[in-house]
Design a protein that fits this description.
71% of the residues lie in helices and 0% in strands. The chain contains six helices and no strands. Helix 4 (53-75) packs across helix 5 (85-103). The relative contact order is 0.19. The chain is mainly alpha-helical.
Length: 148
Amino acid sequence: MSGSGRTFLLLAGAGSIAASVAHLACIIGGPDWFRAMGAGERMARMVERGAVMPLILTVIIAAILATWAAYAFSAAGLIGRLPLMRVALIAIAAVLLIRGVVGFTPVFLPIPSIAFKFWSAAICLVMGACFALGTWQAWANLSNEGSH
C-alpha cells in the first residue's frame, strides 16, 4: 500500500511498539522505572516487595500494545493480513481516543500525577488519531479478504 493512510498507520504502529517497549523497560528497570513512567507509588512498592501482579499486568499491556502495532503494520502492508482488520482498527482507535479524552477529565482513575495524566492522555489522543485517520484513509484497501 502506498499513500491512503499508510503514513498514519505506520505512525500508529511505531507509537504502539514504542509504548510496548516502554512497558517492558519498566520490568527491566524495576521500581524506579515504574515510578518514572507514572505507574504510581503503590505499584512501585509492590514491585519492590517482589509481587508478581504488577509484572503480569505490565506484560499484558505490552502484549496488547504489540498486537495493536501488528494491526497497524498489517493495514499498512508491512506484514500479512490479520483477521477482522477493520473491526480491530476501529476498536483500537476508539479505545485510544476514549482513553485520551477521559484522561483529561478530573475523574479519571486515581492517578496522583497530573503530569502523567496529561501526557498519557495526549499520547493516547495522538495514537488514536493516527489509527483513526489511517483506517479512514485506507478503508477501501482493508475490505474483506482482499489483499492490501
